[in-house]
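your task:
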Amino acid sequence: MRETYYLVTGLVSAAIAYVSGKLGILMPVLGILILLMVLDYITGMLASKQEAVMHPNDPNYGWSSKKGFNGIVKKVAILAIIIVAITLDYALAVIAPQLGFSPMQVPVIGLLTTSWFLLNEMLSIIENAGRMGADVPHWLSRYIAALKSKIDDEAEPLSNPEAVMEHDKTE
């Protein structure tokens, strides 16, 4: 039994080390995102329970398995989008030299996408805390929303791949 535990622990550690080596700076950001996703799900359930207590006869409030399932599906969809962004970074890194421009040194698309969803989870947690009755500083929500908007602004040139290629050729 103990040998099996050590084997599984070693294999999991090796897999995490391998993925971490491949993802680089993206790995800790992904780890934080997954932690925030779990926290968002828990705070969402608690907020729904709190609302059910405050509105006992209103079926619009409270936790339901349908809402919970939809929340999990949404989290899986977010992770799928991030995988697509990471794959796009990889594809660009492999294809860029063949197209005549230098590849980006940092996985920008995956990092921006993951960071955007990380900020989205933060906003959701703050919203859930407010639903539970916590006194949330308004400036905190505005600051996180401003950061999210900044990522959108920074990523805008990425929506035009030809402009990125032209920019790389001029450098």
